[in-house]
Each structure stands twice: as C-alpha cells, then as structure tokens.
C-alpha cells in the first residue's frame, strides 16, 4: 500500500469513464448538475455529444438513462450517492431493476467521509437500499486501480449496477497488474488471529491496522469485499473457519451493509460471532473526514482495539 500516493475514487472513476468512452461508442453519461464534483466532466469534455446534464432533476436522469438503454446504449448515471440512491429509489426500482435495464448508477461522495457537508449528504444507507433490489449488482471500490477496473468492467454486465465511490483521497493499494473479478473478494495476508472484512475507504484503514498489529505479534488477514452483491460467500466461510475473530468495517450503517451481508452468509453456512464496525444506526455529523472516521470508530485504531480486546 502506497500511503504517500492518494487519490479519491471519484477522480479515478472520471478518468476511467473518459477512457472507456474512447473504447466503446455505446457508452453515454448523464449527470445532475454535479459533473465537476463527480468528475463526469472529464467525459463531457471529450464526448459532449454523448453527455447529458439533466440539471437538478435526478429522478428524470434515471428515466432518461433507462430510455437510452433500451436503444442499446450503456448508460452511466452519476451524482452524489445521497441523490443517486435515496432521491431516486422508486425510479431505480421500477424503471431500471424491474425491467433489468443496462443502467450503471454511480454514486460519488458516499458515507460519512463526505465530511463537512454533514448528515444530509452523508449517505450511509445506500448499500442497504441497492443490495435489496432484485437484478442489482453492488460494487464498492477501495482504490484508484480497482476503481478504474470496475468502471470499465461494469460496462460488460448487461443489467443494473450500483458503483459506490468516495470523496476522500485514499492510498493506492494495488498495482496495475492486479486481477479482479466481480463477486470475488481479495484476501491480503494469511494471518489466523483475525479476519477483517472491509470495503471502500475502510480497506486502507484495515491494512494500516494489520501493519501496526504485526508489531504487537498479532497476525491478521484483510479481505477487500469490493462486490457487496453478489458477495463472495465461499471466501467468507473459509476465513471464518480459519481465523479466531471476524470483524467487518464499513463507512455505512451497520444495518444492511457489508456487516449484514457477511452475517447473512455465515448464519446460513457457518454460524460465527461477527463484530461489526460502522455507523451505529444514527445520522452523520459535519467535520473533517479523518475526524469522523475516528469518532464513528471505523479507522485503523478502532480496528486494532477490537482485535486486541
């Protein structure tokens, strides 16, 4: 992990989307008056004829994206996660998931790490909302390399996808040769003292905790669950059988997110105690992203304390 080289996954998304536009003429992009923040402006600059800014009208954006997909287009609809999933839930459910249309919903600025924007913009229920929808694939990426892979890879899925992205710049975890697969988690290390399942911005925190715990003689493994749905049940069960503790950590409500998904998998196949770190069924607060991660106990120190406890 390169802690000195950080980039926000929203930036990686924008760059990858512009590159994808060169490879695939069927890719169209829609935004709701936030192109500079979501970084879809990079695509718009290169392909203005394939970019639609609907203005502050997110419900209409999903409807237009659905319509374009029926003409063979691969529609990427992007805005802040709070609007991309909450404000438009009915449109996603009825106009995208029910007919299983080829729309990619890309929610940036997810989680409490949006920071100073505060509770109204800190979307901590989006994974819960999206993974509950039939036909929906849910992906939450952890670094620049993985995000660029996911942005292009989801264009190959014929159906709805939710791609969760962050505002906070995070370290580069993977190298350009890393192989990813939708639905398959990535195990980092073989420690047996604990397994930490993490997703998105918390993967870097889990890896930081792993390095710090080594100095205390504690050997853990970290599993990057970049695909929340379909989740890698086989890897989850394997880790539960091989390690002493199971912890999940996410920048999301503990209800309905990664922790719930892991618990569901284990309850059916390998009943195991799971310690869930996340936002504990409350709204966020305004503050610096790093301070909020510490406050809500989803940073590396919180992970270390739980494993040592």
Structural class: alpha/beta
Share of helix, binned: 25-40%
Mean pLDDT: 97
CATH superfamily caption of the largest domain = Thiamin diphosphate (ThDP)-binding fold, Pyr/PP domains
- In whole angstroms, the N-to-C terminal distance is 26 Å
Mind explaining what this structure looks like?
The structure is a single chain. With 309 residues, the chain is of the alpha/beta class. The protein contains 13 helices and 14 strands. Strand 13, helix 11 and strand 14 (275-279) form a beta-alpha-beta unit. The two termini are 26 Å apart.
Keywords for this entry:
alpha/beta; 7-stranded mixed β-sheet; 5-stranded mixed β-sheet; globular; 14 strands; Rossmann fold; 309 residues
Q: What's the arrangement of secondary structure elements?
A:
Elements: E1 2-8, H1 9-23, E2 27-31, H2 35-38, H3 41-46, E3 51-53, H4 58-69, E4 74-80, H5 81-87, H6 89-97, E5 103-108, H7 126-131, E6 137-140, H8 144-153, E7 161-164, E8 169-172, E9 186-188, E10 194-198, H9 202-214, E11 220-224, E12 227-229, H10 233-242, E13 246-253, H11 258-269, E14 275-279, H12 289-295, H13 300-308
Parallel strand pairs: 2-3, 2-4, 4-5, 5-7, 6-7, 10-11, 10-13, 13-14
Antiparallel strand pairs: 1-8, 6-12, 9-11
């Amino acid at each position: 992990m390169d802690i000195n080289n950080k980039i926000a996954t929203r930036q990686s998304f924008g760059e990858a989307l512009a590159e994808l536009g060169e490879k695939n003429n069927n890719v169209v992009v829609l935004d709701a008056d936030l192109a500079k923040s979501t970084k879809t402006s990079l695509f718009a600059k290169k392909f203005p004829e394939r970019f639609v800014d609907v203005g502050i009208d997110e419900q209409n954006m999903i409807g237009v994206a659905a319509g374009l997909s029926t003409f063979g287009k691969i529609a990427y609809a992007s805005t802040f996660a709070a609007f991309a999933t909450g404000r438009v839930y009915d449109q996603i459910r009825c106009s995208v998931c029910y007919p299983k249309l080829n729309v990619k919903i890309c929610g940036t600025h997810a989680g409490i790490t949006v920071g100073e924007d505060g509770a109204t913009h800190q979307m901590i229920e989006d994974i819960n909302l999206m993974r509950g929808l039939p036909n929906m694939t849910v992906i939450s990426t952890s670094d620049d390399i993985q995000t660029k892979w996911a942005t292009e890879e989801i264009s190959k899925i014929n159906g709805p996808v939710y791609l969760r992205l962050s505002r906070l710049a995070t370290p580069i975890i993977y190298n350009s040769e890393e192989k990813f697969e939708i639905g398959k988690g990535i195990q980092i290390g073989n420690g047996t003292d604990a397994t930490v399942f993490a997703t998105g911005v918390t993967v870097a925190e889990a890896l930081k905790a792993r390095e710090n715990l080594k100095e205390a003689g504690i050997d853990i493994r970290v599993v990057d669950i970049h695909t929340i749905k379909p989740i890698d049940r086989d890897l989850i069960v394997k880790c539960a059988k091989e390690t002493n503790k199971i912890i999940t950590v996410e920048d999301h409500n503990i209800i309905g997110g990664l922790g719930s998904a892991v618990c569901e998998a284990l309850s059916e196949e390998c009943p195991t105690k799971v310690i869930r770190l996340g936002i504990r069924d409350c709204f966020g607060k305004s503050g610096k992203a790093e301070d909020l991660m510490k406050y809500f106990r989803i940073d590396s120190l919180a992970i270390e304390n739980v494993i040592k406890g």
